Amino acid sequence: MHTDPLLSWRRLFALPALIHIILLGTFLSRFAFFMVWPYLGLMLFQKFALSATDTGLILALSSGFSTLFGIYGGNLADRYGRGRVMLTGSGLGILGMSLFACAASPAWFALGATCNGMMRSLLENQSRAMISDHCPDGQDRELALQLRYYLINLGGALGPLCGLWLGLSAQQHTFWLAAGGYLLYGLLLAGALWRVTDSRSQVLSSLGFAATLQVLARDRAFLLLTLGNVLTMFVYAHFQSTLDLYLMRLSIPDIAALITQLLLINTLTIVFLQLPLVHTLARFSAGQRIRIGSVLFALAQIGFWFTPVSWPMGWLLSAFVLSIGEVILFPALNLRVDELAPPHLRGSYVGAASLYLLGSASAPILGGLIIDHLDGQWLFILCFVLCAIAYGFYLRSENIPTYIKARRPEQRAAEEQG
Hints:
It is a single chain. This protein has 418 residues and is an all-alpha fold. It folds into two domains: 1-204, Growth Hormone, Chain: A (Up-down Bundle); 205-418, MFS general substrate transporter like domains (Growth Hormone, Chain: A). The protein is 80% helix and 0% strand. It has helices at residues 9-14, 17-34, 40-48, 52-80, 82-102, 106-133, 138-165, 175-194, 209-218, 220-241, 243-248, 255-280, 286-306, 312-340, 346-353, 357-373, 377-398, 403-406, 409-417. Helix 10 (220-241) packs antiparallel against helix 17 (377-398). The longest helix is centred in the N-terminal third of the chain and has 29 residues, at 52-80. The radius of gyration is 21 Å and the shape is globular. The two termini are 37 Å apart.
């Protein structure tokens, strides 16, 4: 077991080679993906003149299938091995991006979005579980999960900028670059898995899908955590989807510049402050960090609520507080899921945790209704209340004994056979 601090080069280089491949592949695939994905809506409009509703439905297929397929894909990973499932996911990523690159009708774009959603549930979700499988040391595991979240955001931030700089935006053939990213990731992953020793092999489960659902339903600590995550993502999604709609109705001068600054603050905060905050908060448990992040989310809603139209700096300060909360809260939520998941059901727990996407998927709909039919400030009042409820869910989740992990292995085996 290492004695180095959480953030150290020695600890990083001591991680298994498979973990390095997962981290590198995560960045490569995300970077290539975001070089073109943000411009997919523009491509659909230019090529087929689709309405905003039709475009939104195609884009929603990705997150929708990722959510619906998450638990089942996790169960497959638990039963047949995470490596096989992740390689299947990389193949679906290649197929989805290839369909985007050569699609001649909206139906083919929709099929590509479906493949992309299934890829996320198999490849990206299970990479988190794979990290936990191969990092028995708690600090190694936290470092790898923190770096994975950081590289996802770094790829998401640099990809669109690079695509715009290279003149690749809104060009359909550039989806071949994203397909190449998933191909490279799959090849590197296959090579690394070939060398994995039996001593680090995954603990397989014999539980079928229905039995796995029953186990998840009995884990009250996990259910409360997931409910809190759905509410938290509902709140966070408004920052990325409906806040700009609200601001545009306030007649703020140079609104485009303000919206750009809000997004820039979010990106720069993640890129430059996540790792220093990891070092600063290393002595806090995952539950304590979740509570800190939740409070910052709530404070940001108060800031958005009371900021006058004549003071744009208030919006920027609130966005900064929200972004600090994000870099503390979201990695801690991943750690908490890992704490609750028994080794033989780790994939299913990670897949079920992706239900938080229900919050982000419903936010634009409800947010738009509130802005259209009520005073937009009611949106921030609602978000503040939801932050308080989520905080209560998280706190209650911590105080419930983790029954599933406390059971003896022979008890779990007996339940599986039964």
